[in-house]
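Hey everyone, long-time lurker, first post.

I ran two proteins through the pipeline my lab uses and got sequence/structure pairs for each. Pasting them in order. The first:
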Amino acid sequence: MAQLNEIVGYCDVLMQVDKFRDYCPNGLQVEGRSEVRKIVSAVTASQDAIDAAVAAGADLLLVHHGFFWKNENPVLTGPKKRRIKTLLENDLSLLAYHLPLDAHPEIGNNAQLGRLLNIEFVEHFDTGSPLPWGFVGKLHRKLSGNELSDLINEKLGRFPLHIPGHSREIEKIAWCTGGAQGYFEVAAMHNIDAYISGEVSEQTYHQAKELGIDYFSAGHYATERYGVQALAEKLVGRFNLTHDFVEINNPV
């Protein structure tokens, strides 16, 4: 068991939240009971995830995608009202870390994805932040585009959308989880063979062809499952808590 304020203070320092200009607040978003014994983690604070946390008897829901996004409607109506009402009625806290959880060099989404795919980290590429979350690395052995697709499917449980940009084998890769297709051209400056992200745009097809770089869209949700679980497990070890991860079947 631990105090909520101890957990929040530890996470805020670990995630270096003061170094990010984000699209949402990082840290405690909804305050519940002061004592925490069980954490449930999920990628997104959806109604399904909140309901699962309540059913599991959690004191704290830890997510990557929380509430109160920049430019969203601030009124508490419809689905947002129902989500927050469920949290408050069950005295369940919501703790969310967005860009800080993408960037963390050990437990972040990108670090975890690189480890999962057995990519050796080499350097960062610039994402316009004091703590960049774009990664560049090398595979331990060269793969064809189809072989890399198979590896992603094996590790993430889904085949990526693969846009071939060349016919050579792939060794050097840049990656950035989630909706990071907009960094494709920046990542390409690092002499890479392939770029992996979560989502894809219409222009991404043309960029892959014209840059001569393979692009793999592996799913926003699928690429961002792992950071929140790693953070939760770190809290389990430090504060003697229990933890369950809620898997939501999200094909995006």
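...and the second, right after it:
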Amino acid sequence: MAIHGLIFDLDGTLIDSSDGVVEAVNYSLTQMGQVPQSAQRIKAYIGYPLEHMYPDFTSAPVDELHRHFQVKAAETVVASTTVLPGVTETLEKLHREGIAMAIATTKIRKHVDGIIDKFGWHELFCATVGGDEVEQVKPDPAAFCLALKRMQSTPEQVLVVGDTINDILAARAVPMKVAAVASPFGGRQKVIDSGPDFYIESLSEIVDIVRQLRAEGNNGL
């Protein structure tokens, strides 16, 4: 069956909101009387649940840290977000070629909507899924399954595009094919070792991959 859709991760794949995330994380830590962390150390956890990060920094209660994080993140995350190089042009090209596109992320829905508003991406995406819309975030496949449902697509018709091992594990659990893109936050070798179907250095390369998969599908391969 030919590929006709893509589900994208958000942070590290399409956008960089790391400055706002770092600010919100360190705000939460200082509010709890804990030591702030370096930007480099925090950025290594972007794309992962906060519950996986905080225990590596502190023994303070994660639920209270999470609450402080969300207070500051409401001010900083969308405001700090930038589009990664070449992303908008690539998305527009895929849209012109009739590819249905969705977002499935650990970011909460409010931030997803704010980012789409900020960059005027409404016409590009037919579905979005925030981390607060599923019981378990990636590497659980729930976000991708919900995105497929909202796209009215099947796993065989859609390719996942993400930058972390969690995206690959979640895609495999559906199961779906997955393309990994080099992340601005590091972790390259870990991602490659996890065995994505494709590995690309730039998101722009996804256009040729989609064309290849569509041609194979149309030829019955």
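Reply from user beta_strand_b:
Welcome! Quick read of the second one: The domain at 18-80 is CATH 1.10.150 (DNA polymerase; domain 1). The chain has a mean pLDDT of 95.
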